[in-house]
Amino acid sequence: MFCLFSRILKDWKTIRTEVINLTKKGKLDDAIAITTGKGLKHINIINSGADGKTGLNYLMNYANDKAEEFQNIAKSREKRALIEIIIILVSAIILTFFIILLLRQSLKTARRVTKKRRTFKTFPKPC
Q1: Whole-structure pTM over 0.85, yes or no?
Q2: Handedness of CA 18, 23, 26, 28 (dihedral sign)
Q3: How far apart are CA 97 and CA 95, in angstroms?
Q4: What are the distances in angstroms from CA 65 to CA 50, 53, 58, 79?
Q5: pLDDT for 8-43, tens place per residue?
C-alpha cells in the first residue's frame, strides 16, 4: 500500500517537474494543458487512490485511526498504572501499620521483662 502510494507520488513529481520546466521556458499554454489534463487526473489519484486504498485520504484516515488507537492504549495504561500505584501505596500503609503494632507489642513485652528483672534486683543481699 505505501509502496504503491510512493510510486504514485514519484509519477506525479515527473509531471510537476515537466510543468515547472514548461513554465520556465514560457510555454504557459502547454503547462496549463498538462496541469488541467493528466496533472489533474494524477492529483485525483493521489487524493483518492486508483484502488481506493492508496490515496492520500485513505492514508490520512489510516494514520488518524492508528493515532486514536495509540491514544486509547496510552490512556488505558495510564489508568492501570494509577490503580497499581494506589494499590502499592495502600499496601505500604497497611504494612506500616502492622509493623508499628508489632513494634509496640515488642516494646510492651520488653518493658514487662525489664520491670520483672528490676524487681529481682531490689531484694536485699544475704549476709
Answers
A1: no
A2: positive
A3: 5
A4: 21, 14, 10, 21
A5: 777 777 778 888 888 898 888 888 887 777 777 777
